[in-house]
Design brief:
Radius of gyration: 12 Å
Oligomer: single chain
Number of domains: 1
Largest sheet: 2 strands, antiparallel
Number of strands: 2
Bound molecules: zinc ion
Shape: globular
Strand order of the largest sheet: 1-2
Distance between the termini: 32 Å
Strand content: 5-15%
Order of helices and strands: HEEHH
């Protein structure tokens, strides 16, 4: 992914929402770069921080959610 693919925070949030099916609240996201951590809010577990480039991969959501998912399986 090149830097030019994401121009602003609205675009970044749209991509997040697509990858994560609107699971998270992105109202606190301040986009600086794909490697500067942003605040993402899990509706069940609260705020966490993550690099946008990792969040866009889809596998890295809320850590507590991931733990719970692993327990169930
Ligand atoms: Zn969660």
């Amino acid at each position: 992914m090149s830097k030019k693919e994401i121009l602003n925070v609205q675009e970044l949030i749209l991509k997040f929402q697509k990858v994560h099916n609107n699971n998270f609240d992105y109202s606190k996201v301040v986009f600086e770069s794909l490697t500067s951590k942003v605040i993402i809010i899990c509706p069940d577990h609260g705020e966490f921080t993550q690099q946008p480039r990792l969040h866009l991969r889809g596998s890295n959501g809320c850590k507590t959610c991931i733990k719970l998912r692993k327990k169930i399986r």
